[in-house]
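Input/output pair, single chain:
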Amino acid sequence: MDAPALSPDGKRLAFISENAEGAFVLVAAVETGSVTARIPIRATSLPGLTWANADTLLLFAPQTIVIPFGGPLLSIQPFSIDLSSPEKIATRQLLLDHPRYKLNKSIIPVLFGSPALSVRLIGYERRTGRVLLSRWDTGGERSLYAVDAKTDESTLIDRGTRFTRDWVVDTEGMPIFRFEYTEAADRFRLLARRGDEWTPIAQETAELPELAVYGLDGARVGARDDIVVGFRPRDVGRYGLYAMSAETGEISRSLYAHPSADVATARIDPYTNVVVGADAADRTVWFDAGLAMYQAQLDRTWVDGSPRILAWSEDRKRIVVGVDRPERAPTYYLYDTKASTAEEIGSRYPALDGMKLASRKA
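Output:
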């Protein structure tokens, strides 16, 4: 078992499994444990597996795109699995009508490298069940689309520029900030949406190296819309998460910076699009009070291991936990927060189950 993902209602668990027959996405009913869907896939090292809505899975897989006179480039593309009809499970690639690459100005983004060709998940529009995906369009710009994962019907939400790299969306899925980066000048701009216009609120030249924009600070939503950014301050040396004022573009405070390791990424709630924690070293630091409370309970339960919250249902009554122990292969559990019970649901390396592993050296 790998990459477990819990459905929004907490009733189904999707994960990747590999055996002698190949690799598959399996979907199981949580109550009974019975497998209700088995979808063959070509790649096991998927960048992401998540639920687009209550009965549609979204996964991202590597795809090779051939550029005329430029050779093959690896990109990450989205695929959906429609589980609404058990008798006929439908799979499709989303935003498949990627542009034809011609020798004109639309070839410019190719010069940025293969990441420019990848489709990225920006957030969720939970009210409609659509996902927000950004891609490079034929005009040479990166644009944001709201996509129905079942039908691949898409609506253009915002047309960026050839310098656009990312968006920040609110809890309803509306884009409210846009991040742009000019590689030649090593300059970034952060723009805020004011009505129908995008207004720059911050512009720097190499002042914030490795800047990444993750989303709204979940602890301040409604009171003050701070943006969570990641960068490596020159006086600290470690990559961490910081709050940036949405009004002035200034860094207002540190959210989390590990004393001896870089923050790997921000944790984002898939139901609200806001940042709720940070992954660093062998632990997750939660900014969200509820998730922090559950993490403390798990830490007390597995004193001999390192439990990590991996996924949760929308009501947070069920949580998928991964536990690493010094003498056992990584194991997955389903934690019932209401009953305060945890049931083992799988192992990352089943062949090692029951074997005593060598102790780790400090």
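The CA atoms of residues 28 and 35 lie 4 Å apart. The helical segments are 289-301.
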